[in-house]
Amino acid sequence: MRATLFLTILLALVSIAFAAPTKLETRSGNNGRVTYYSGYMMDEPACGGSTPNDEDLVAAVSTDSPFKCGDSITLMRDGNKATVKIVDYCDSCTFGEWFDLSKSAFKKLGSLELGVMNDIIYWKND
C-alpha cells in the first residue's frame, strides 16, 4: 500500500515537472544587427578572462545594450541559430541590439562575405 502511494505521488510530481511551462527567453527582439570581429580586436576583452579566438562562440555588445558580461544570447536568422556568450563591449556598435560576433558565430547565421546582417531575432537564455 505504501509503495503504491509513494509511486503514485512520484509519478504525479514527475508529470507536473514535465508539464509545467519553462521560461525560455527574456529580453528579446527581432530587429538586431550583427557584424563580426577578429584578430587583435578580440585582445583583452572588457569582461575579463582569457582572450577569445575566431572559433569561440562569443560576442561584444554596445555599452548601452540590455545584455551584459556573461549573458548567454541566442541569435537566429533564416532558421540558423548561434548561441554566444557576451565577453566584450564594442565601441563601434551604435545601439543596444547590435552584436559583434566571433567569426565562427557569424558563420552560423550567414556567410562572412555579408559583413553585416540585419533583422536578427535574439533572446537571452536563462
UniProtKB/TrEMBL annotation:
Signal peptide extent: 1-19
SUPFAM superfamilies assigned to the protein according to its UniProt record, in alphabetical order: Barwin-like endoglucanases
Highest rank taxon of the organism: Eukaryota
Keywords: Signal
Annotated protein name in UniProt: RlpA-like protein double-psi beta-barrel domain-containing protein
Family matches, as InterPro entries: Expansin_CellWall, RlpA-like_sf
Residue intervals passing through the bilayer: none
